[in-house]
Amino acid sequence: MFAPVRRNAELIADRLAGAGLQCDVVHDGEAFERALAAAQDTYGVVLVTARAIYLDAAAVIERFQEREPAWSSLPIIVLTPLHEAPAVPWRNATVLTQPTRARVLVAFVRRALEAREQQHLVARTNVRLRHIAYRDALTGLPNRTALYERIGELQRERRGSEGVFSAIFLDLDSFKSINDRFGHGGGDEALRQVAAHVASAVRATDFVARWGGDEFVVLLVGADGVERLDDTVHRLTQGLHVRLPAAESGSEETVPLSLSVGYVGRITGDESPDDILSEADTKMYAHKRTKDTQRS
Is 144-295 CATH 3.40.50.720? Predict the structure, then answer.
């Protein structure tokens, strides 16, 4: 609560404390801003008096709402004498005229806290739903939906630039033999280990997604040179192996694996995601056919 008059602040805080509600009190704009910055995620409602609005409360709250979008929905209760009610610039504010009975104030604060908790619940649910919608359940990598979204983001961020990113399409060779030998459980574990290998071979600023089945896509952000592509492809394809339990003994067995690779470099903001991925996919299958021909 921001209340410049100490006596009023103490009286209001005592009323709230008597109802089991904790209330932090400040008396000036600087202290108000420090309090919000230090514990903004823990506050459920902000109380300000009319005099606080005439001082710095409005400017402080507006700054925080611009900086933190979640603050636009933070409940605000304005306590004001009837004869000097200020203009309230926040749509999520409730104005209570003084003198206000303690039970009325407590009821409004509790209602505001309940509303804030509902906001947090909805936000947490949306985060979980987004995670489910954009993540591959088996490997934990971003899925195809997330991949398309990331390509769109990169193109919008760097439209007009040359070589804004590169795309690498990866396909695990002879994956059917893994399933045949170790069962579908072994195949799933192989995919998880390959996903971890791919993710560890690129930078944190790059993007790795599971396309589906035994295929993965890597976006090299800012990779506009053949040298970085070649280095990354080398890390992705060299020394790849997984450890899987043998069906007969149950002991772990090291299984070497290989990847077929196709990539598109120097992608700008003009190509469609489908065209980019289709070109990389075509090159990947050409690489796979070349290796099959060499083996035969």
Answer: no
